[in-house]
Specification:
The complex is a heterodimer of chains A (about 475) and B (about 240). Chain A has about 475 residues and is mainly alpha-helical. Chain A is built from 20 helices and 3 strands. The chains are: A mainly alpha (about 475), B alpha/beta (about 240). Chain A: This is ABC transporter permease.
Chain lengths: ~475, ~240
């Protein structure tokens, strides 16, 4: 171990004295620090803006004057996805999936206002977040700093000189890896501070922040070990650089893109337009609540009349139109749920493809672990959409319930012709104040930690593989006399 | 003399690289304080012999010991007993002469004081102004001197030199040979692989001519008169080349 430290110290001294290496380290540190600070500031502003917008939209709903409940169904409200405490570290799919859903009767709207849609095209190339820096840029800079670590010594003959002075191949590679590991740790430091800060502000997120930090440490460790191993195996530093850049392009760019493409082709997700057309077709098939002769709603009416022992809807103890609206909403909502569930199944299968692609790319594994841990993954977004839909259904049914119980059926039937009847169907604004507010709680830290396990296991495999390759490189170096 | 009395004992050494036999039954031995010059043409197996002694290359058969240690079974003990000077001395350009020496001494787990290092620099005539200069600016001679200073500081019983005077000017070459004699007087055995016939004749106690991977001829320095017959050496060398 003494030798490992000695060689690591010399390598770090070389980095400090080499202008190019120093520029690389400083650039990496600056990028990491800038990403941590800007992302934290941006996310804090976004979190505040969304929380404020949610309060305002709730207040606007509650401030509506006396109205017919069905007008309120169409007035609708908004559900805004709250920003999790770790989203500043890794915004995940947040920029692409949208964060605001307009909730209204009869319709299930998509989330809108994704940052990628709102901002210039530059954002689509990747935001400068700590996660992006660590996943994409840090390995590249580690390659530039470490590709020549061993190969350069071989080219200059100092590898043999070290061996002649008693340094084993294992200690030489270990020392180089340790020096590069120190650089990786430096790159990780601002991100760790960002995660630590989030953990201090939300202590219940401390455990998961630590797991995320360990996942990134493991990811960078795998890169460090791989870079040193390739540098130890390659005949020249140029060969090492070419091999490592190719590996970076494959692992960080090509495999994730190709995996997403393959997943999309293997399990295509119907477009929003196709889904809406299909839902409309199903609705026509199931029934039209506005058509008195529709078989489903005719049967519904017959059942209600029989249940209450009356022959006319006017004799029901409640406003039939409200009950009809409730039944219509129940059917459409069930359809939305069914289609959402089918889409979920496809998305899960696509995620499965991407999960398996983690075998080919540790970048995918760490990205997945990071997004799951930060609660910015697709599963959390789906949970938000499901929560928004559940809230929408509950709100609309409460309003339909008010129409059934607080609005007279006779007035409701005459309101389009009789202004007084119309006036009477407008119920007190106090009712809107009794409506619950939208709340979304991301999956708990323990649930997210459990969901991270497969990605963490894959990362563990990559680290083991990198150790294996490094060990092989050391044996090869020993065999070939450095 | 017993085999264990020799600093270096090589008997019927065979080294193969791939399908090629580079060293084929080489035998030589060095007593403490002896300087042995190994002459031979390119590809004769000189450097391969050095690498086998250092344990960098495995050997197929024969015996080889350094201070009684076999490099196959005790490479660390062998490397602790040997200081090796390659043809192109590998110093770190970003480190000063002092830092280079300190680093390699640290790697060899051979701590020496600042005063010891400066004394070693003085003994190899490395100008004091160069001690704290980065090696990137050094001439070949300065690099050689730094490496010799390192070898002195390590105080190993065996010094292996690979073409030590190639690229040195005559004055530097003469200084270098003087240093070798001083080391020899301290009991350090020196095995020197070289093309420098005159330098070898000036310094070596024995000269071996390697051809076809084995010692083809060997001469011992005479105690009186010219140390070696240069004509015989030249003819022998020209014959194997």
């Amino acid at each position: 171990m003494r030798l490992v430290w000695t060689i690591a110290g010399a390598e770090l001294r070389l980095m400090l004295r080499s202008r190019l290496a120093l520029v690389g380290v400083v650039t990496l540190l600056l990028l990491s620090a800038i990403a941590a600070v800007t992302s934290a500031v941006q996310m804090a502003e976004t979190a505040q803006a969304r929380a404020q917008a949610q309060i305002e939209t709730d207040e606007q709903f509650k401030a509506q004057p006396n109205r017919h409940p069905h007008r309120m169904v169409h007035y609708g409200t908004y559900a805004l996805r709250p920003v999790g405490p770790l989203a500043a570290f890794d915004p995940g799919v947040d920029s692409f999936t949208g964060t605001v859903v307009f909730l209204e009767g009869h319709r299930q709207n998509s989330a809108t206002f994704g940052a990628a849609r709102e901002s210039s095209d530059l954002l689509r190339f990747g935001q400068l977040t700590p996660a992006f820096v660590l996943q994409t840029l840090a390995p590249l800079l580690l390659i530039f700093l470490g590709f020549a670590g061993v190969a350069r010594e071989r080219e200059r003959g100092s590898l043999r000189a070290l061996a002649a002075h008693g340094a084993s191949a294992r200690s030489i590679l270990g020392g180089k890896a340790m020096a590069l590991g120190v650089v990786a740790l430096l790159a990780l430091a601002p991100a760790l501070v960002a995660l630590g800060w989030a953990a201090v502000r939300q202590p219940h997120e401390g455990g998961i922040a630590l797991v995320i930090a360990l996942a990134y440490a493991g990811y960078l460790a795998a890169w460090v070990l791989g870079i040193v191993a390739v540098s130890g195996i390659a005949r020249t530093s140029q060969g090492a650089l070419i091999a490592l850049i190719a590996a970076w392009a494959l692992i960080v760019v090509l495999v994730p893109r190709a995996a997403a493409g393959i997943a999309g082709v293997a399990d295509p997700l119907p477009s929003r337009v196709d889904t809406e057309l299909a839902i409309a077709a199903d609705l026509r098939r199931i029934g039209d609540s506005h058509n008195a002769n529709d078989p489903h709603f005719a049967a519904f009416k017959t059942k209600l009349l029989k249940q209450y022992g009356v022959t006319r809807t006017e004799d029901l103890p409640f406003n039939y139109r409200g009950a009809l609206a409730q039944e219509g909403e129940r059917i459409t909502s069930q359809l939305f749920k069914d289609y959402a569930a089918r889409a979920d199944v496809i998305r899960q299968r696509q995620s499965g493809w991407l999960g398996w692609a983690g075998v080919l790319s540790p970048a995918l594994s760490v990205r997945d672990a990071s997004m799951v841990g930060a609660a910015t993954d697709l599963t959390t977004h789906t949970a938000f959409m499901n929560a928004a839909e559940a809230y929408r259904f509950d709100l609309v049914q409460r309003l339909n319930g008010l129409q059934a119980t607080a609005v007279s059926g006779t007035d409701d039937a005459a309101r389009s012709k009789d202004p007084l009847a119309d006036q009477r169907t407008r119920i007190s604004a106090d009712f809107w104040k009794t409506m619950p507010e939208f709340e979304f709680n991301a999956p708990s830290a323990s649930a997210r930690m459990t969901a991270m396990v497969p990605s963490l296991l894959l990362l563990g495999l990559w680290i083991a593989l990198a150790f294996g390759v490094l060990g092989w490189a050391a044996r090869r170096l020993e065999r070939h006399g450095a | 003399m017993q085999v264990t009395d020799f600093t270096l004992a090589v008997e019927n050494l065979v080294v193969d690289r791939g399908n090629r036999r580079i060293v084929d039954g080489l035998s030589l031995s060095l007593a403490p304080g002896e300087i042995y010059a190994l002459l031979g043409g390119n590809g004769a197996g000189k450097s391969t012999t050095l690498f086998a002694i250092l344990g960098f290359l495995p050997f197929s058969s024969g015996t080889l010991t350094v201070c009684g240690h076999d490099p196959r079974t005790k490479p660390d003990a062998v490397r602790a007993s040997v200081a090796y000077l390659p043809e192109n001395v590998a110093l770190y350009d970003h480190l000063t002469a002092r830092e280079n020496v300190e680093y390699f001494l640290k790697v060899a787990d051979c701590p020496r004081s600042r005063a010891d290092i400066e004394q070693a620099f003085e003994s190899v005539s490395l100008a004091a102004t160069a001690w704290d200069q980065r090696a990137g600016r050094f001439s070949k001679g300065m690099r050689q001197k730094t490496a010799i200073a390192l070898a002195l500081l390590r105080q190993t019983p065996l010094l292996l030199l690979d073409e030590p005077t190639s690229g040195l000017d005559p004055a530097a070459s003469a200084d270098f040979h003087g240093l070798l004699e001083a080391l020899s007087a301290r009991g350090v055995s020196i095995l020197m692989v070289t093309h420098d016939l005159l330098g070898a004749a000036d310094t070596a106690d024995r000269i071996g001519l390697i051809a076809g991977g084995r010692i083809a001829d060997e001469w011992r320095a005479q105690e009186s008169g010219p140390r070696f017959d240069l004509n015989i050496l030249h003819d022998g060398f020209a014959g194997v080349k």
